[in-house]
Design goal:
This protein is an alpha/beta fold and about 700 residues long. The protein is about 30% helix and about 20% strand. The chain is built from 17 helices and 25 strands. Helix 8 runs antiparallel to helix 13 and helix 11 (about 355-365) crosses helix 12.
């Protein structure tokens, strides 16, 4: 066949079996899928019943084949204690079944009804930032430690599972909705305080062990009775960092236990053939999502792109979700269908954008995409949020783009994501540790991970994002961002990976804290990591983002302490191409760094980068240590880019870069490799730019 020219708006192309595509030689990790699904969150309680059939007809015309319902309908399902009203949902299920649309039902526990709160006001959580109890009238305002709330939750979940658990048109269940949303993960009520004290006793066994682990002798905080242990309520200065980290663990585990409580009610009533999931949130770190994912059949994810900086960050969060269940496909339970109502300015969504976002999610491993919501609502707190239908019930742009996606998916074979050649290990407890005491106010564990991901995404290199204890076999390179907490079991896994030929890259702020969040008394990095890396940290430096380092404001016109900080490193081990002014003279690339720097002291490692200014000029800034058949790298400063050329070359990452010679320049394009049922490579190209792009496509 002759080459053909393809034009489109946001979806640039899906091209099948390109001869020039490089095979990575990795086994496919995703289970075979029946089909990709498109769906929507639907709220029959928001509309007159006479409208339901028309909505079902319009949604089916757009290619919608599944609706999610009921997560905020507790008051309509149980208008008074123990009195259930289920007939309306029976009729809604009948209407959608008749239209050929299946249903996912949700447990309605994020919004307890007014009668329950009035009878038991202690079910409302107490905010750790203010010490005040939440008021009724919103969502996620409850504590999962209040007996009355747990009893009422059990009652409603049992009742709806008995009613619809094996309904022929119900394919699965969602537990609750967005645990932790609106800063609601932590609670310092009396219920939570007593539960935390019991948790501490179960973990440490004795007060002597707890006092030793937390270092309570500091500021005279030794505990002599379990009842003395506080929750982190507002106080004059900071709480003990060990208490704070354990309280985060306790809070996360409490919601995991609450979810498991509902799963134990649902599973025997719905059977093994129906799934159970929960909708995780973007850029949300108050819960350990790996632990929350463990008991679910697959992960759900709410993909709101206007909550992120752009397509790269969106891709990172999608890949993070894909790694929650060892590569098991996830579902988008809420996909932004247009403008939202909760960002500072809520910008418009141009034509083609929703279509591109949907295809990006599918290309990163989503098995289904459900838009939020069916129709822009006329009542309540989200009236400005777009839906597939407008406020008047007529199709909005999102409806047309969902229909276009449905037509797109019908044209191509079912595709699935394979194992990537590169992995990033992401850890919630490391994130909590560095968030609780960042030392530099601008430091962010998440941003470190994102800066590792950024150059890989820009070169279209597939990445798996995994927990710290993941099986690393088969990965050509593994990146570990700021692993603050010492874990000798994780280190043993990393060492085995390197000895067997793997290449491990660890960044600054590594293994300097014990699991209880006290500082190690070993040379950093502690716990044996220094031996693997062949280097120790002689000094660490917080690099302020502004010239001022004292208490005064940056614009105050007076002299400040001269901290003699540096700002640049030389990538001395990088191989230059001879192109460019400095490279033509054989000069090493020079990089800026920011926020954090560590002066390194190699023991067995080779120096890759050196500082070029500051009082630590010429000191090592990055190293490589050969161990067994592999190598371990350490990046000691937050350089720009974070993966310097010398390490990129040593990892031989160029072999995984996509061939972009036929792509137009100056546009933000994303190339993603999927596979069809026969294992043949399929390259999905998404145009994230404003302009339509034209390119020549090869075809067989």
């Amino acid at each position: 066949m002759l080459p053909k020219c393809t034009k489109s708006g946001k979806i640039l192309s899906i091209r099948y079996s390109i001869a020039a595509h490089r095979k990575l030689g990795t086994a496919l990790s995703i289970q075979p899928l029946a089909r990709h699904l498109l769906g929507v969150a639907y709220y029959p309680e928001h509309w007159h019943e006479s409208r339901w059939a028309e909505d079902a007809k319009l949604l089916r015309e757009a290619g919608i084949s599944v609706v999610r319902m009921m997560e905020f309908a507790w008051d309509k399902l149980e208008p008074a204690e123990g009195q259930f009203n289920f007939d309306w949902m029976d009729r809604a299920l009948e209407i959608f079944q008749a239209a050929g649309i299946q249903a996912i039902l949700c447990t309605p526990t994020p919004t307890p009804p007014a009668w329950l709160v009035a009878a038991h006001p202690d079910i409302l959580r107490v905010d750790e930032r203010t010490g005040l109890r939440d008021s009724f009238g919103s969502r996620r305002s409850v504590t999962c430690h209040a007996p009355a709330y747990l009893e009422a939750s059990d009652r409603i979940v049992t009742a709806i599972a008995d009613r619809w658990g094996k309904h022929p048109n119900v394919i699965g269940w969602q537990i609750d909705n967005e645990f932790g949303c609106h800063n609601s993960t932590q609670d310092i009520s009396d219920h939570a305080r007593r539960a935390f004290q019991a948790w501490c006793k179960a973990k440490y066994g004795t007060l002597e062990a707890l006092n030793a682990a937390w270092g309570t002798q500091f500021w005279s905080a030794t505990y002599t009775d379990w009842a003395q242990i506080p929750v982190p309520a507002p106080t004059t200065a900071a709480h003990n960092p060990s208490l704070l980290l354990d309280f985060r663990r306790f809070s996360s585990q409490s919601w995991v236990a609450f979810q498991r409580r509902q799963i134990e009610i649902l599973r025997p009533r719905i059977g093994a053939e129906r799934f159970i999931t929960h909708n995780f949130m973007l850029k949300f770190f108050d819960l350990d999502y790996y632990a929350l994912a463990a008991a679910l059949d697959f992960v759900g994810y709410d993909n709101y792109l206007h909550g992120m900086s752009g397509p790269m960050e969106a891709a990172f969060n999608l890949d993070l979700m894909r790694g929650m269940k060892a590569g098991r496909p996830f579902w988008i339970m809420e996909q932004q269908p247009g403008s939202v109502n909760w960002t500072p300015y809520n910008p418009p969504v141009p034509p083609g954008q929703v279509r591109a976002w949907t295809h990006q999610a599918i290309a990163h491993g989503a098995e289904a995409v459900l838009y939020f919501r069916d129709r822009a609502v006329n009542i309540g707190q989200e009236q400005y949020h777009a839906g597939l239908l407008k406020h008047d019930g007529t199709p909005d742009r999102g409806w047309h783009e969902a229909k276009a996606v449905s037509e797109d998916l019908a044209k191509y074979p079912l595709l699935k994501r394979g194992k990537a050649p590169v992995a990033i290990l992401f850890d919630y407890e490391d994130l909590w540790t560095l968030r609780l005491d960042p030392h530099n106010a601008a430091f962010s564990y998440y941003e470190v991970a994102l800066d590792l991901y950024r150059p890989l995404w820009e070169k279209h290199i597939p990445v798996d994002i995994l927990p710290r204890n993941a099986d690393l076999s088969g990965y050509a390179a593994v990146f570990v961002p700021s692993p603050a907490l010492i874990n000798e079991a994780h280190l043993a896994n990393w060492r085995a990976y390197v000895e067997q030929g793997g290449k491990l890259v660890v960044t600054f702020r590594a293994f300097f804290k014990t699991p209880s969040n006290t500082w190690t008394d070993q040379p950093m990095p502690g716990g044996g990591l220094a031996e693997l890396l062949g280097v120790t940290v002689d000094e660490f430096l917080s690099i302020p983002p502004v010239p001022s380092v004292g208490w005064r404001a940056p614009d105050t016109p007076s002299a400040d302490w001269d901290d003699d900080r540096g700002a640049h490193v030389s990538d001395v081990a990088a191989k230059t191409s001879g192109i460019g002014f400095t490279e033509g003279f054989g000069m090493a690339p020079k990089l800026r760094y920011r926020l954090w720097a560590e002066v390194l002291k190699p023991t067995t490692a080779e120096v890759l980068m050196r500082y070029t200014d500051g009082y630590y000029k010429d000191a090592p800034a990055a190293t490589m240590n050969k161990v067994g058949q592999g190598a371990a790298f350490y990046i000691g400063c937050w350089s720009e880019p974070l993966i310097p050329r010398s390490i990129w070359q040593a990892l031989d990452l160029a072999r995984f870069e996509a061939d972009t010679k036929d792509l137009p320049r100056g546009q933000t394009l994303e190339l993603i490799t999927l596979h069809d049922a026969e294992g043949k490579p399929v390259q999905v190209r998404i145009n994230h730019s404003k302009r339509t792009v034209t390119f020549v496509e090869q075809a067989e």
